[in-house]
Amino acid sequence: MKTLKIANIPGDGIGKEVVPAATEILKTLSDIHGGLRFEFTSFPWSCEYYLEHGKMMPEDGLERLKDFDSIFLGAVGNLKLVPDHVSLWGLLIKIRREFEQVINIRPAKVIDGVRSPLLNPKDFDLIVVRENSEGEYSSVGGKIFQGEDEIAIQNAIFSRKGTERAMRYAFELAKKRRKHVTSATKSNGIFHSMPFWDHVFEEVSKDYPEINTDSQHIDALSAFFVTRPERFDVIVASNLFGDILTDLGAAIMGSVGIAPAANINVNGKFPSMFEPVHGSAPDIVGKGIANPIGQIWTAKMMLDHYGEEELGGILLNVIESVTRDGILTPDIGGKYTTKGVTDEINTRLKAID
Ligand code: NAI
Ligand code: MG
Q: Do domains 1-107+259-353 and 116-253 have the same CATH topology?
């Protein structure tokens, strides 16, 4: 029997609605599997917690999380109670940084029954591996002079370690998929870092002769996400390029409410964190209509991460059978509630057993 210890942090807003829904689904999956058990511990860390305690999580919060297998997070943010930079940096970003979650992965695929803004999209199924710790998002640089002479300098940091780590992750992932890695570059315009990026990509690719590769400039690559997303399998990108591509990926799927994500710790020292792309959705909180699919698909990514790809595959098939039959929340054009969609997924999973 394999037991996974999961720290649930529902957080704010609809996080409190979709995390319980996805947790219910995970419990059903463990019944189907037989050999896999989940042990959930829930933490109330959120903006409401902040009002009471003056912080988003207790002093020893990270210490209490560090021995879990993974963290299953909903969303953080309630502008009525706490400014966003305080809430996000006090919980979400703190966990990502301190737990060295240096890779961010986000899949995008056509989901039957969910209308994409693309006209007649072919059956795309891609995943972006984003370097999550350095690159363009650095605090190195500075400002000098005032007025019309004012100058701002922003340095990007590309270490061999960080670059290679992201690329190796992408190649390993491609082995389990359609065996293709695309590198997002811009070496025709960025003088130092991107030729370095290309060089490391070429080197790493030699260790994976069974994987096909190509390299695309980020501008053309973004255009292909719209015109021919079906040509991609795994895409590896720097922090900034990956950030942009993953929003585009969520957009071509049809709703932010269905998009999943994972923050991966690759050195095994700390847990990884699984969270949907969407935020706390204050405009629909409490109405019971939040789309649970983003959170449930995020649970599938957690299963994949622990080698339970078969079970994850079953779950995604059931999600698609439900959307195909028009059982949809309002954000994707339906009339169903969070509970309605969750119950249907649950019922169909139990029928497989
Ligand atoms: P948001 O993702 O919360 O909402 C954007 C729009 O998408 C809203 O109209 C919302 O109703 C809709 N939406 C989002 N998730 C949905 C779902 N599951 N089902 C149906 N509709 C859904 O982004 P927004 O409004 O920019 O941010 C709201 C709060 O969430 C802010 O405090 C922000 O800082 C925080 N936030 C937190 C994130 C995280 O925890 N990772 C990510 C993005 C935002
Ligand atoms: Mg973004």
A: yes
